[in-house]
User: What shape does this take?
Amino acid sequence: MLPDNLTEIKGRIAAAASRANRSSYVIKLVAVSKLVPVERIIEALDLGHSIFGENYIQEALEKIPCINNQVKQKAVFHFIGKLQSNKAKKAAELFDVIETIDSIKLGLLLEKHCAGLNKKMTAYVQVNVGGEGQKSGIAPQECEKIIQGLSHCQFLNIVGLMTMPPYFADPAGARQYFIKLRQLAEKLKAKGLLGQHGPVELSMGMSGDFEVAIEEGATVVRIGTAIFGKRSD
Assistant: This one.
């Protein structure tokens, strides 16, 4: 099941990239592994997949060291959940990428902890493009201020933006939000606020709408259900 799912998703990523005249090689697949047992993550690693996304610090505390102790190949972990300030130290220790920066305070905390670890960390600012009250992330107009406030960080590198658009039964409904995030990133790059650490990353698109996201410029897609199957939250 898992080998077939990974093969299918990678094929769909390649097809969506081709439709947009893009190379699939620039698109990272984050296999969302929240509530997925360690054994299945290791199975995915054995199949050659190396990038995973976790939502909960407490769960990651139990899983990530266990996985790192059992496998030789390097697993890369993205944190994609709401990060509380009091969990920033553990996040800095456990993760390679934080996709959910939503304040200068949180970014500076991560900078402090990464400095203590002498560890460079990649990060994205989470943007609530749909303005939904129940979702995390900052308003698009706040993005410039936050990135400027973190521009002098030596260990925390802001490389792009992340979003979770409103849900639509028809994935095409999310297109306008993916376009908004891409346009915002383009404006920030034009102002010299993004792009200093390499290509600008856009983390957008999940199991139900990742193909539309790729067509609109996603460089990172976060897919859980279509890889690991349904889980109970």
